[in-house]
């Protein structure tokens, strides 16, 4: 592998998954840069005050513009790149995508969210600016002629020898999925299965109060709420305390979330409402329970042991294989 290969990742990395890609590339002795837009801050109080003024009186976010200018400044400093990969690029304007492309011979995008869930216009992503657009969502791949690739296993494979504290565990944002989470919590309580459900969001207490007021729904008393973000290390620690990970996808998403791959690495069972999972080669009904809104649990699923995934199948979904595929690194191995 040539040590002179240069790769740059541009992303917001709010949950630090993207940093795992950087680490994987660095392990391969590749010169790697990460432009983390989520960490971009105003240079001084004057800039911060000016941005607040424009947001309040003109509904204009100057930070949005400054972030994009920061990308170009960083790339000018880093020099020409062999590959530039932008993760979820819809927050970057088309004119800046053209500027970014001038700094590489291979400009790529990866969408680890479905187009149906995007809050921003995606038309500018279809202008032919990218050499390739990867997506984890089957429907988007077919509709927009994207190239398919799934999310990845970023954790080391580990046989969990720690005694479980809970039968089922989930860590999630507080959103439209909550009624189904709450329904599952109530059914688990009826079955007398222990669980730990943690919901994280800004202004969480206000959102919970608003939810109660609007829906009149009684929230299961064992559910926990917090405003502080949970790190990947904390997520791993929490999942290690359970036998089963619960994963509920939003809307019409067909791609697999990181919960699926975390469960594979930690060798935990999975409960999910993503019915598309049955089409994957690692699917095993003993390990994965697919539910719908009716949630008719089969109690036997909760008591049978986990069955390990064959190594040949498992390796296909590792981060090492993901970066090899995205950046065509295997073809560079002598």
What does this structure look like?
The protein has helices spanning 18-27, 45-58, 62-78, 94-101, 138-144, 178-191, 204-215, 232-239, 258-266, 311-316, 319-326, and strands at 6-11, 31-36, 83-87, 107-111, 132-135, 147-148, 166-173, 195-200, 224-226, 242-247, 269-272, 288-290. It has 334 residues and is an alpha/beta fold. It has two domains: 6-152 and 318-332, Glycogen Phosphorylase B (Rossmann fold); 166-313, Rossmann fold, CATH 3.40.50. The strands form two sheets. Strands 2-1-3-4-5-6 form a six-stranded parallel beta sheet, with helices on both faces. Strands 9-8-7-10-11-12 form a six-stranded parallel beta sheet, with helices on both faces. The longest helix has 17 residues, at 62-78. The protein is globular and about 60 Å long. The model has no long low-confidence stretch (mean pLDDT 89).
Task: Describe this structure in a few short sentences.
The chain has 334 residues and is α/β, with parallel strands linked by helices. The protein has helices spanning 18-27, 45-58, 62-78, 94-101, 138-144, 178-191, 204-215, 232-239, 258-266, 311-316, 319-326; strands at 6-11, 31-36, 83-87, 107-111, 132-135, 147-148, 166-173, 195-200, 224-226, 242-247, 269-272, 288-290.
Strand percentage lies at 15-25%
User: What does the average pLDDT come to?
Assistant: 89
What distance lies between the first and last C-alpha atoms, to the nearest angstrom?
A: 7 Å
The total domain count is 2
Return the CATH architecture of the largest domain: 3-Layer(aba) Sandwich
The class by helix and strand makeup works out as alpha/beta
* CATH top level class name of the largest domain: Alpha Beta
